[in-house]
Specification:
Layout: H1 6-9, H2 14-29, E1 43-45, E2 50-52, E3 55-57, E4 59-64, H3 74-83, E5 88-92, H4 95-98, H5 113-122, E6 126-132, H6 161-180, E7 191-196, H7 208-223, E8 231-234, E9 244-249, E10 265-270, H8 286-298, E11 303-310, H9 344-364, E12 369-374, E13 377-385, E14 391-399, E15 406-410, E16 413-417, E17 421-425, E18 433-434, E19 442-449, H10 462-467, E20 477-480, E21 491-494, H11 499-503, E22 509-518, H12 520-529, E23 534-548, E24 551-566, E25 572-581, H13 592-595, E26 598-606, E27 613-614, E28 619-624, H14 627-630, E29 645-646, E30 657-663, E31 672-675, E32 681-686, E33 689-695, E34 730-733, E35 743-749, E36 759-773, H15 786-789, E37 801-805, E38 810-821, H16 840-848, E39 853-857, H17 860-863, E40 874-883
Parallel strand pairs: 4-5, 4-11, 5-6, 6-7, 7-8, 8-9, 9-10, 10-11
Antiparallel strand pairs: 1-2, 2-3, 12-13, 13-14, 14-17, 15-16, 17-18, 19-36, 20-29, 20-30, 21-28, 22-25, 22-28, 23-24, 23-25, 23-26, 26-27, 30-35, 31-34, 31-36, 32-33, 32-35, 36-40, 37-39, 38-40
Helix pairs in contact: 8-9
The structure holds beta-D-galactopyranose.
Beta-D-galactopyranose is lined by residues 135-138, 198-199, 248, 268, 274.
């Protein structure tokens, strides 16, 4: 450790001075990024729960996949998970990220697994490491490296020696890496649990006896590694005795593991869903999610993981398929950028606090007592003795009726249960939380045109925003990508080759060229018949573009669909070019190694006078990828070597173009996105970082219900939005990939777009709303106050509160609405009702303005009068968040 000398410290710039407090805060939160984080402890389990350091525990876990964020984002994501009530972070391990080339490992940058695990440990959270190494996860090829297909004799995920050898090698590598870094709990590290395989039960039947043998082998191989913590297999009803089989799904409250000795674990609670290009955006209501979680703990569950707590972004070409989009937002409690999605995040935080209040009772009981309260209502009661001998009791009251509220009696008290809800009673008497009553704030995110970079800061108000879209650049350079074979590293082969066998997934693109000679007879035959010859391929995926003599005849998009593309030839020799493209490799299902890409079945040219031409027998010249890709013209290092020319503003969109420009980073700390709605389909890089595939494909027109009812079982079609609009227009550019000015943006555009209309924007939670009535339950933190614990305060006498909290680095700049009384409407549309406390606005402003967070009691006392006695009153507030003085000039997060 060395200290900065005085001479050095005088060189600290004013910018650095301003960020020093933040650096200091980080050092306090994450004191140690190496060494041990906990007193070493062991983890085991019984039928009721995981047993951590000798104690049963109830765990809430937050799913975060490290490569779907940057290392600079990790601390904030982990802090927000902890703040939201998580005890555990869960992640998969991404084999194809770690071993991109057989035997060559990568544990750097977004793949710095050790760093990620250490950050989890230093925040005081535990880690569930799901090694797989098959992970599914909407990740390219389900996490398998594409070279794995080339191992002779290999069959994935079955009793196959070559596969087992590679799988064992990788799993061993990861376990050893964790052990060497002392990251297992018995070494003082955060890892309390592992996973081998992933949902193998879904495909096991396809493999017959070999599948069953594989499960046994995988289990004993994993256990044989001596990792010293429990292993999980999810969706694996035949998991061997010493492996815990866990549940995945939208609901897991009926789940029973395959042995009485195992606890009930929920490895994937799908709190939203993923999206395909051309699909609408799924949303899972917070009330239903909270209901599912509460029901799980109510009925004996002990570990629940949100899949995802933070979904993030499929940077580069990591998204799986078929056709998964670049965003992996997942409608998770933390959005794609790491901002809280409210009310989901806050409602779950309250739920977790309520569950925590029950933890001692939940673990003290071996099983709940059951009481039927009505036809669709039931109670589960957990009783036991506390460590100091006191009597513990916690109860969950559920109303599973999808339509009606229920009025039930429990232990002599009356309770009202909204439809499809659970009330949690940490003392078997008072309601701490009800899953259908949301007291948490709602936030409205806005996407602003870039503020001026460093220094000159201005807020763009709604009204100006429309006229003031600032496009990223007025000057663009362009470069045409050659159509067809472009370089020497091509080869010729008699017959059609399978796409992945050729590309090895080094690129999405594979060119095939053959020569078609056309006679005068053919031409006149087509003229007389009024018909065109057609390229006909039995089956193809994901995109096929057909060119004749370098002119695009047409494109076909689909997943193993028949392709029929009419073409026009000239007399004599014609170049027939087929470009096959992948948009994310298959990540789910049996026999992934056989799935491949490109073409399957017969390929012919039909409509010739002398019969069909069998294209699978033709001589084809192949070239992998694009010239621009090979020359790495998207990198800071190499882009200038290419022969770019200035793009004229009036030039019309053209296919197969590279574009580049430079742009400045918007000031502040808000997440940065590129709006690529003006473009067609392609890929984009910022300062050489591949930000992902983009595609301006429109979502299906139908299926987005106008209202979303939380009641009743959720499925991914239930509460979708964005129908009829492009599936994704904004692409995340992590701030750590940006410098203050002159950032290089390079795009490869396949179908034609207008780069002049690309803009850089920032995303911010600009509007917060809170709406809580007098009858809402008291703040959960009050349950832990000494007054309540020692009985001097009755929880009934505690007033509910409205809590507002801007994102870090932001403060409440104005209260735009406040009414204590009978306000009407919902967020952004509030209006005062008949009853309104006249001081509402000034009281709320006084409490909140200028602060990052605030709370206001919902009571006559707080509003210094009763505006309408005898009437149930509500406090509704709408606030605006703006960057605080300290951060608005900063271009960068300081982590
Ligand atoms: C599960 C799988 C996850 C993910 C999820 C859907 O079946 O285990 O990896 O793919 O579905 O998001």
């Amino acid at each position: 450790m060395s200290f900065t000398s005085m001479a050095d410290s005088t060189r600290i710039s004013s910018l650095q001075w301003r960020i020093l407090p933040q650096i200091f805060a980080l050092l306090v939160i994450f004191p140690i990024v190496s060494g041990s984080f906990f007193e070493p402890f062991n983890v085991s389990y019984d039928h009721r729960a995981l047993i951590v350091a000798g104690k049963r525990r109830m765990f809430v876990s937050a799913g975060i996949h490290y490569p779907r964020a940057t290392p600079e984002m990790w601390p904030d994501l982990i802090t927000k998970s902890k703040d939201g009530g998580a005890d555990v972070i869960q992640t998969y391990v991404f084999w194809n990220g770690h071993e991109p080339v057989k035997g060559q490992y990568n544990f750097e940058g977004r793949y710095d697994l050790v760093k990620f695990v250490k950050l989890v440990g230093s925040s005081g959270l535990y880690l569930h490491l799901r090694i797989g190494p098959y992970v599914c996860a909407e990740w390219n090829f389900g996490g398998f490296p594409v070279w794995l297909r080339d191992v002779p004799g290999i069959e994935f995920r079955t009793d196959n020696e070559p596969f087992k050898k590679e799988m064992q090698k990788f799993v061993t590598k990861i376990v050893d890496l964790m052990r060497e870094a002392k990251l297992f709990c018995w070494q003082g590290g955060p890892i309390i649990m592992l996973q081998i395989e992933n949902e193998y039960g879904d495909v096991e039947k396809s493999y017959g006896q070999k599948g069953k043998d594989y499960v046994k082998w995988a289990a004993s191989m994993a256990l044989g590694l001596g990792a010293g913590v429990p292993w999980v297999m999810c969706k694996q009803t035949d998991a061997p005795e010493n492996i815990i089989d866990a549940c995945n799904g939208y609901y897991c409250d009926g789940f029973k593991p395959n042995s009485k000795t195992k606890p009930v674990l929920w490895t994937e609670d799908w709190d939203g869903w993923y999206t395909k290009w051309g699909g609408s955006l799924p949303h899972r209501p917070a009330e239903d999610l909270a209901f599912a979680v509460a029901r799980f703990y109510q009925r004996g569950g002990s570990f629940q993981n949100y899949y995802m707590y933070f979904g993030g972004t499929n940077f580069g070409r990591t998204s799986g398929g078929p056709f998964y989009i670049t965003s992996y937002d997942y409608d998770a409690p933390l959005d794609e950028y790491g901002l809280r999605s409210e009310p989901k995040w806050g409602h779950l935080k309250d739920l977790h606090a309520a569950i925590k209040l029950c933890e001692t009772a939940l673990v003290a009981a071996d099983a709940p007592q059951y009481r039927k309260l009505g036809s669709n209502q039931e109670a589960h009661i957990y009783r036991g003795n506390g460590e100091t001998g006191g009597k513990l009791c916690a109860a969950f009251l559920a109303n599973i009726d999808e339509h009606k509220s229920a009025y039930v009696k429990f232990n002599g008290q009356s309770y009202t249960l909204p439809p499809w809800s659970v009330s949690i009673l940490p003392d078997c008497r008072h309601v701490a939380f009800n899953t259908a009553k949301v007291g948490a704030q709602t936030s409205v995110k806005t996407v602003d045109s870039a503020r001026s970079p460093l220094g000159s800061f201005s807020i763009l108000h709604n009204d100006v925003r429309k006229d003031n879209v600032s496009y990223i650049s007025k000057s663009w350079m362009a470069l045409k990508e050659p159509i067809g074979i472009w370089g020497e590293n091509n080869f010729t082969f008699q017959g059609l080759l399978e796409h992945l066998n050729v590309t090895k997934d080094q690129s999405d693109y594979l060119w095939h060229r053959t020569r078609i000679s056309v006679s005068e007879d053919d031409i006149s035959f087509w003229k007389t018949n009024g018909a065109n010859p057609t390229v006909s391929i039995d089956s193809m995926r994901d995109v096929l573009r057909v060119f004749v003599n370098k002119q695009l005849s047409g494109s076909i998009v689909g997943h193993w669909v028949k392709a029929e593309q009419p073409v026009r030839f000239v007399q004599g020799n014609n170049d027939l070019l087929l470009l096959t493209q992948t948009v994310g490799l298959q990540n789910y299902g049996a026999f992934l190694e056989k799935d491949g890409a490109g073409f399957r079945g017969k390929a012919k040219l039909t409509g010739f006078k002398n019969g069909d031409v069998d294209l699978s027998k033709s001589s084809w010249t192949y070239q992998v990828g694009l010239k621009g890709e090979a020359e790495k013209i998207y990198t800071v290092e190499h882009n200038e070597k290419a022969e770019w020319s200035t793009l004229e503003t009036e030039s019309s969109p053209s296919i197969f173009m590279w574009y580049k420009t430079y742009f400045d980073t918007p000031g502040g700390t808000d997440p940065v996105v590129l709006d690529l709605e003006s473009m067609g389909k392609g890929q984009a890089w910022v300062n050489g970082h591949h930000i992902g595939r983009y595609w301006n494909i429109i979502s299906q027109k139908d299926g987005c219900d106008r209202t979303c009812d939380y009641r009743g079982a959720y499925n991914s079609d239930k509460c979708t939005t964005n129908c009829g609009k492009p599936t994704q227009t904004r692409y995340h550019v992590p701030r750590s990939w940006l410098k203050p000015s002159s950032n290089l943006l390079v795009l490869f555009e396949e179908t034609g777009g207008n780069p002049f209309k690309i803009s850089v924007k920032t995303v911010t939670a600009a509007i917060l709303c809170g709406q809580v009535s007098e009858s809402h339950y008291p703040p959960l933190r009050k349950w832990s106050t000494p007054d309540f614990k020692n009985g001097t305060m009755s929880i009934n006498s505690v007033a509910p509160e409205v809590h507002l909290r801007c994102e870090e680095g932001h403060v409440i700049s104005s209260i735009e609405f406040a009414s204590y009384g009978t306000p009407r409407g919902s967020c952004e549309k509030f209006s005062t009702g008949k009853c309104h406390a006249s001081k509402s606005l000034s009281i709320v402003s006084e409490a909140c303005q200028g602060r990052n967070s605030c709370f206001i009691e919902v009571s006559n006392t707080a509003f210094r009068s009763d505006p309408c006695s005898g009437t149930l009153k509500t406090l509704a507030v709408m606030a605006r968040c703006s960057p605080s003085q300290d951060t608005r000039h900063l271009g960068f997060k300081t982590a």
